[in-house]
Design brief:
388 residues, alpha+beta, 6-stranded antiparallel barrel, 10 helices, 26% helix, elongated, Heterokaryon incompatibility domain-containing protein
Length: 388
């Protein structure tokens, strides 16, 4: 808890703002390290006990803070409940204060912290205002800084991370954030990616392992985006989706991609295996995507139907690594016919003897007409595929 903050004054401010039920970030009351204790300096044994208790609390308390801010989402709040959290942007119980432009650039600034990406409510009650009329005293925040504060907050509210449909958009914003511990950037995504349950917080966990845990519990449509839209195989133990290093340092797919809200195929996590049940084409011949230098590569693939008739389809691929001419297995996303989205394919190889699919790249049908033609000719089958 900040040195100059007073819980009694915080309580009074909450009541003045009309609060009836108050939830405080209890982690502000038990931070890492010895710090200052008004009851006197604890013994080494007492401090070890407190530190052990803090670590146990953090496992659950730290990652669940985002629940308070996941307003309006039926998975976390009833639809008939209006949630308006009270936000302190300069520290719990402290005056709202941004005196110079450098305050906005500080790593500890609210706008720059990894954890606060999930704390962008649609209609926050801004606490810490220093005048009785609800305005801000200029000695804490000059007029030009107030304008910048309002602009940055409005920009985040317009983006609304809780409402975004793109995992790559969320990851792009998280890239710019700062964290005391690197794993915080992963843990701060749990609510934004609509996870089915929350992994416990472990400050000693490496980022890649934390990312693996998050991928396993995030909403299926975000897993689909990692599989069907990220154009390269994963660098880590799993090729079907990018590693944490790739999504934080590499080029991310452009905006305007499918949202997979209409995904009828399924991703299943079964005893450490990733099973995708959906369209698949075996022994498909791909041509024209071997040159990685073109902005948009145009090619084709050929496949026989169940009667042995060969068909050729036009495809396009965004810049990435080369896809050599040859024979491959394709795993697809086929949106409903009425949805204005093209069929997407992940290209790869089946590795024997276990028959698992190793991703190599992605491409899509050249246009909706090609998508409909492919759908009508019945050249793919729905099946379960274990992904590497």
């Amino acid at each position: 808890m900040p040195k100059n903050a007073d819980l009694n004054l915080i309580r009074i401010e909450m009541l003045n703002l009309g609060a009836e039920y108050i939830w405080l970030d209890v982690l502000c009351l038990r931070q890492e390290g010895q710090g200052e204790d008004p009851r006197g300096n604890p013994s080494q044994e007492e401090w070890k006990d407190r530190e052990g208790l803090r670590k146990m609390e953090w496992k659950v308390d730290l990652p669940t803070i985002g629940w308070v801010y996941a307003e309006g989402h039926p998975q976390y709040h009833p639809q008939d409940r209006e949630v308006s959290p009270v936000c302190y942007f300069s520290g719990l119980g402290l005056p709202l204060s941004f005196k110079t432009a450098s305050d906005f650039d500080d790593d500890r600034c609210w706008f720059n912290r990894a954890w606060t990406l999930q704390e962008t409510p649609r209609s926050p009650i801004i606490a810490g205002k220093t005048c009785d009329n609800g305005k801000i005293d200029e000695k804490f925040m000059p007029v030009d800084m107030q304008r910048r504060f309002d602009k940055q907050l409005a920009s985040l509210q317009h983006w609304q991370p809780q409402k975004t449909a793109s995992i790559f958009d969320v990851l792009f914003h998280m890239r710019k954030r700062k964290a005391t511990k690197h794993v915080d950037k992963v843990a701060g995504l749990v609510y934004l990616l609509e996870s089915s349950h929350i992994p416990i917080y472990n400050a000693g966990l490496c980022e890649e392992d934390a990312w693996t845990e998050l991928v396993d519990v995030m909403h299926y449509r975000f897993r689909a985006a990692l599989f069907f839209l990220y154009p390269k195989p994963g660098k880590g133990r799993q090729s079907w989706r990018p590693s944490w290093e790739q999504v934080t340092e590499g080029t991310l797919p452009a905006e305007g991609q499918p949202t997979f809200k209409h995904l009828t195929s399924t991703f299943r996590m079964q005893k450490g295996k990733v099973i995708y049940e959906g369209p698949r084409i075996d022994r498909c011949t791909v041509h024209g995507l071997a040159d990685p230098s073109e902005d948009l590569r145009h090619g084709e693939f050929k496949v026989k139907n169940c009667c042995g008739v060969m068909y050729t389809f036009k495809i396009v691929a965004d810049p990435s690594g080369p896809i050599d001419d040859g024979q491959y297995t394709l795993i697809g996303y086929t949106p409903p016919p009425k949805v204005a989205e093209r069929i997407l394919w992940v290209i790869g190889k089946i590795e024997e003897p276990e028959g698992k699919f190793r991703k190599m790249s992605v491409f899509r049908m050249a246009n909706r007409r090609e998508s409909e033609r492919l759908r009508c000719l019945n050249v793919y089958r729905h099946t379960k595929t274990c992904l590497l």
